[in-house]
Amino acid sequence: MTDDKDVLRDVWFGRIPTCFTLYQDEITEREAEPYYLLLPRISYLTLVTDKVKKHFQKVMRQEDVTEIWFEYEGTPLKWHFPIGLLFDLHASNTALPWNITVHFKNFPEKDLLHCPSKDVIEAHFMACVKEADALKHKSQVINEMQKKDHKQLWMGLQNDKFDQFWAINRKLMEYPPEDSGFRYIPFRIYQVTTERPFIQKLFRPVAANGQLNTLGDLLKEVCPSAVTPEVDGEKKNQVMVHGIEPLLETPVQWLSEHMSYPDNFLHISIIPQPTD
Amino acid sequence: MVGEMMMVNVGLNDQVWGIGSEDRAVYFRQGVTPSELSGKTWKAIVSARDSDRSQTGSSTSLLSAGCFFSDDVREQMNLIAQSDTDTSSDTESLQVHPDLADMPLLGAPASVNGNNVGSQPAEASANVAVAPQDSAPEEASPASGSGEKAGAEKSESPADQDPHPAELQWTNIDLKEAHKKPPFSTSPFPETPIQSSLGMFSVGDEEHYGADEHPLWAWVSGGGCLVDSHSSLKWFTLQSGLLCSVQSLSLSISPAQTAAWRKQIFQQLSERTKRELENFRHYEQAIEQSVWVKTGTLQWWRSWKPHKWTDVRVALEQFTGNDGMRDSILFIYYLHHEEKKYIHVFLNEVTILVEVLNDAKHSFALYTPEKTKQRWPIRLAAATEQEMHDWLALLSMSCCESRRIQGPPSHQAIWSVTCKGDVFVSEPGPELEAAPHLMPCDQMFWRQIGGHLRLIECNSHGIVWGIGYDHTAWVYTGGYGGGFIQGLASSADNIYMQSDVKCVYIYENQRWNPVTGYSSRGLPTDRYMWSDASGLQECTKVNTKPPSPQWSWVSDWYIDFNISGGTDREGWQYAADFPASYHGHKTMKDFVRRRRWARKCKIITNGPWLEVPPITLWDITIIPSSAADQEELIALWAVSDKGDVLCRLGVTQQNPAGTSWLHVGTDQPFMSVSIGAFHQVWAVARDGSTFYRGSVSPKKPAGDCWYHIPSPPKQKLKQVSVGRTSVLAVDKNGNLWYRQGITPSYPQGSQWDHVSNNIRKVSVGPLDQVWVIADKVQGSHSLSCGTVCHRTGVQPLEPKGISWDYGIGGGWEHITVRGNATEAPKAALHETSEEHSAKSAHLEDGENGGKGNHSKTTLMVNEGQELDRNTVNC
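YS: structure for the whole thing
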């Protein structure tokens, strides 16, 4: 019998089988074999692709190796989005493995941020965690923690240690007994078709009448176009989190507690319904 | 202690269960191990109630019990769960019959019984369930026989306000059940998984119960419950909230759980896993998993008052980072006011792991730079010496690994010895002596080398000698590890057996009274008649044990006539009252007397040491050389335990043990000797006078004659150390003196300058660096004796230095820095002494260091403050 704890584990241990291929225009000394890897959905591209980098550097000349960047079907992949989000948004209904192209040249300055070291990823991650706590607890919980606790969150993510991460993260998932949820739900809604990167607004988990707000309520309020049905009653979009489509009746408070990414945000993708 | 137990039952594996007589809760005696059969403490088994926010429904009695059992029981619990769900429907609470609604308490007989598969559990639960009738759920129906009987009996009795008769009723019923049940409760079924269930129940009428009330138990049997004495049990605290779902086996079936949206999520997640993972399991993982290296249970000396040993779970984890570096973290999990907490230490921050002498426990201390400053390490204790050594060995290895330290110590290494006789070595970096920004010595990393010694001396060419408590001389073989450090962390072929003998002392105290004279009956406020030196601990001939299980007695108790102060012919020394100074003759004013008894004990260990027979030594010194010197023959002087001054011939790097001793004539016994880089030999005699040996050279290793050097006024010296050119000495009152006025033409110097008080020992190295063992040093919690300190600000123009930097301690006995000849990079010499004063320790004395005025800084002295018995003791 599954329970909530299993959801946390399933979310954490989700993996996307990926095939990395070197861009054909990169200069190589010999033929570069594609590299296959299971990527954690909850992590970040530049954090988990050291092996990929090493693999392709072996066939390249030292001077040609500059900053690595990734692209899928022409779209540069933003490393500061979690891997699961990138996959759901761009490739969720395609055949596995996920085919990513690896580049070392022509870094697309306009589309991607630079990632010179792991410290940059850590800083970005911690910033997200702090922002999420600001929404949930007015930053009280995160500020009460010591630096070593912050470090433990990061190390838990970096080293794929579920217990270590959740030992601290569970504190960020608590709320005072007199409330029935967080102050605001930290979420971001992504759509490929829109101009802006994501939608993020203030949204309370509990309605004025004390009822728990659902995912449907959230979408109706902040992104109504995503959920209005087509003329023929068919849904035109999929609402996806971690590769699954939760029912719109799901309470957002529960979703935030159990299906957030390690940065404590609910990253939701709105993608067009597959046509097949 | 809980108080009184109504009943006690011993189950499998000697584990003990009980029912409290006042609160009627089920207790488990925690800490029963083969070595400690009486256990440590009674712990009440706690169950969650219906009304708790936690997800565990207490009604699903056997199911909810699964929450509180550790993992090793979990898989068996599923069996129970299945069989129960077969027989029961979703149940909530058992309703109380309205007649009995005003019965405030419902004592339920409980059996913690060995369980049987299949239908038996239902019956076992029957034993448990209080099943009053009408709304009795199906779950209790197989038990309906007994349940209804119980109910029937209950309804017969008038609704009683007094709880006790009602309980008697239940007890009666239970006994009957018990008669029927013996086969289940006592004999284990071979094919049955060993497990236990704690039957719980809840009563629907919550109003009658306070929030904290629990069912009242009347009987418990542990005959079927196998608990591994070392496993950590989770039965004693309540879980709540997300915590519950994160940490416990939550099998609640409350309505919210069955919501469609939840089912959808579970279902989709498993589909996703299938889709994304099933066909791709052969792919490589992007992140390597970290490794649990070792977990266990230890005891921890709590950092806040009241200080006591608390049981903790300990885990050592190692990660291989993306860049191949291994990080290790030690986690210590404890409970504070029923809340789970932990502390963690990154092993690359640990500076030393050291065994601590403690009567009752096998304990060790873990220091980081921060904890060294505070003189408050993490103290852990293990149940057995073996376990402690296992942990120490593993942690030491991980620390060395994280600092990339392996193999034998270098020739520059700094050696030190604790009061317990343990040997530690540290690798100095160039920043250690590089003025002006010296590396703080609380950051030094120490690792242990096998062996038991009283002191060690070395030089920078790898010649290292040690002297044991039994005065045996040992020469270092160049190995590492030894002792409890085995395997890869220990070198293979240069570790040999090493032994040492020391005395354990106890005191026989007597008080004079007019009737019988001196007798063993003292005043009520007197110290124990047989005690340790302080008189605070009782030590009799019978109950005094050797310091640790590694030691064994090699003699019987004998009267020790060598106690300071002297004794009369029977070994007694006299004083006016107990804590006073003793003298050997009785006077009219002496109302107490004491006698010291000694007993020898021996330790057999191993380490990179080889004995150098036949002469037993008291002190030793080896010539410190700069790195450039490539002398063939290395000068080594020693003082035998009889006080003779000796010179070792034939010492080379290839043959560090030398070949023979040359006797250097003296007319009185000596106690300390030291040789400087240019063959200056200074020595201290037992009467406290100091001598300089003239004309020592490689051609004339023993020099020609002694020159008497006047001691500092009214002081008797006890130890001297000579570096490159600096000569420093310590007197019997703990003062440190610097010999002023030494020139090449007048090597004896002209006068003694006071540097500091509170010093036990000094070591001057080849760079004229000054290190000491200080006596009382302030820590954040109290004073600690025997602390390593480093004199800062030592320069050619300022050889006495300016102030002190504090390192590892207390509990340190000896240090030698005479191997560290690492040349410091040229420092800016025009730093003024005002700058130095600004940087000096905040505990410095009022005097400042003006340019012409050598500052006299003292180490902390607060004689009034009691020595903290919690610190690492000598």
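YS: worth flagging: The first strand of chain B starts at residue 5 and ends at 10.
IM: good catch. Also The longest helix of chain B spans residues 163-180.
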